[in-house]
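Morning - nicotinamide-adenine-dinucleotide inputs below, output right after.
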Amino acid sequence: MTASEPVPVRIGVVGAGFMGRQHIGFIHAASGAALAAIADPVPPLDVDLGCPAYADAARMLEAERLDAVIIANPNPLHVETAVECLEAGVAVLLEKPVARTYAESRLLVDTVTRLDGRLLVGHHRRHHPAVARARSAIRDGELGQVVAVSGLWSARKEDAYFTDTPWHREAGAGVTLINVVHDLDLLRYLCGEVAEIQAMRSSHARGLEVEDTVSLNLRFESGVVGSLLASDAGASPWGWDQATEETLAFPFLPDGVAYRIVGTRGALSVPNLAKYAYDPSVPADWHSPLSRTYLPVAPRGSFQAQLDHFVEVARGSAEPLVSAEDASRTLALVEAAALAGRTGETVDVAGFLADTEASERS
Ligand SMILES: NC(=O)c1ccc[n+]([C@@H]2O[C@H](COP(=O)([O-])OP(=O)(O)OC[C@H]3O[C@@H](n4cnc5c(N)ncnc54)[C@H](O)[C@@H]3O)[C@@H](O)[C@H]2O)c1
């Protein structure tokens, strides 16, 4: 570190399981961050973390002088841990989902507002350079008027994922809350707010309390319609995690596709950014061939970019790209999807938000 470089942000990690360990790797790779401590009742014994380990967040916060905390503990603990950290005055990167329920997420939103806290939610895909490029292609009309979007995420989780970790098979987990929440967040980021949602859910493949497969229909406020199909029981090469080199848990499939965005003048697949468009010299209709070009972007992993952004949030030099309020809206969609799946009805999202907030107040 030279005299002109800022002092690294001292980060504690709460929950050193699958995701927490990845965050630890990203901290080690970042010049602006330093791993100060971890908190986990079952700390990893197989790796030398090179930092103190505590049984829980409270003990870590009391013993260490931290600037920031990354929370990667089980979902049911997210809000209470985040509130604890915000009250201790540290910046927070909270893994998704922001909370178990929309109502619970409102408690966190209120706490962030009350304490003027700095909190980023870990919807890491938003930090991927292909997402920024896809968003600008949509916003700048490169595809004409966007009319539809489709998404697919299907990957077969190993049986031990469910047998070894009880919370993975109980309410508070499930493919919608664990995985589809990322897709819903990204589709909101790309296409705007969702007005209506329909859902079909199934636990047929695994027979667990949580669903393993879900199919969603979405109508966006912009008029765009979309569909999203996801399963953690179905083996497939299709989905964000296979199409990016984000996590070692997923073999990388070059040129993979997670989303297809269709406009009146062309189409775009994401994250490989294959853009299909008519040549200006031919009629722009289905009788003409579509040419394919790949939009160039700088290679950059979204987790590392997320960590760099979090360092800026912790220093007070950036506003969180995914705030508690924003992630709360994404979580509301997961719940609206669950309601739609239970009732078989189309759920009006604005009405669902109003009803949920009214029942919280009463
Ligand atoms: N962003 C992503 O793509 C992504 C991917 C996987 C998991 N996640 C999220 O990360 C979180 C953790 O998931 P995981 O798969 O790593 O689970 P995991 O079970 O592997 O790890 C959870 C860890 O939390 C620890 N823990 C339990 N109670 C604790 C407590 N009171 N205080 C501190 N630590 C405690 C456990 O001992 C374990 O080490 C979840 O919220 C999950 O949704 C995000």
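Note: The chain has two domains: 9-124+304-322, 129-299.

O.
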